[in-house]
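Predict the 3D structure for this chain.
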Amino acid sequence: MNLNPLPLSISRTGGCTLTGALAVTTGIKDSVTIIHGPPGCAHHNFSLLHATVLDNDCMIIPAVMSSDLSEHDIIFGGEEALMNVIRQVAIGNPGIIFVLSTCITETIGDDVLAVTRDAGVPVCMVPTGGFLGGDFGMGFSQALIAISNQACPVTKTPGPGQDRSGTVNLVGEKNLEYEVNENFLEVRRLVSLLDLTINLRFVHDISWADIDRIPCASVNILREPALSAVGEHLQSLFGTPYINSYPLGIAGTQDFIRDVAALTGRSPVQALQREKERIKDVIESFSDIHGLHVCFSISAGHPEYALIMEISEAMGFRTSPEGTVLPVPYPFPVGTRGMKRMLHLWRRKLTCKAV
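Done. Predicted structure below.
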């Protein structure tokens, strides 16, 4: 057991690496996730997950365990404690056991990977010792990559269920955001305009057996550009091209349709026409707030400022410091339906101001 030195310069502003990985592993219904570390790491993260799933009207509580390390384990090594809890979990015969390391176990040098290899049951290990460098986003990406490595590669001659034409994968849905299902429905609607269907939500509300379907899609659609490393990894493993973001804004939604069409060999003409008509109808349905004086809660230097200005111009808003301050939701609304939800929010704000 070798001690790992802490990096001299680390930032904790990006959230916990362990939480990011948990947001992925708990999206697999028949899995159990073991957090290898002191009980506090599991308690903090499970409390967050419990509150989030309840807020999303989900009554299924994720299966999360802890190796529950004591002071003795931290001093003399926690590998035996980890093996004991793996054996305990394996009795229930889950589809897969995930083991996530913690800052403590990474620092003291527990060989977590060796323990999982010797377990004799299906185990997938994700390194998530954030104090050694990393944040929520890194844990999220590392979990997706670790899981994808377990998928069976697609054969050169497609077999049953391996026809890539006509389907897409959604990669890296933010399972902790409140509008995860609304965003899924919008992306599904947009790709359906091109006669495409969703092959796999990687990873959201799926079973472990579904993982082998990862290669069976014509394109991977990433939730956001921060997951580009995952897109590159999947492309190197399975040869699947990717789009690096969900559609954002008016022009971005239309570009999304063009990009998906190009990668799947489809004509975007009819889909674009239908979506342009839909966008026009949405804008016209808010004619009662056209042309009002507004200002926005984000500045010109914000990455999403251009998206807001695009929608503001479509609505004929007149921006001024004296205008009603309109909030910009986070994450930014996805597609045309997301824009419509934001316009409803703005209408309520403007109506209250007028009263």
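Residues 285-354 form one domain.
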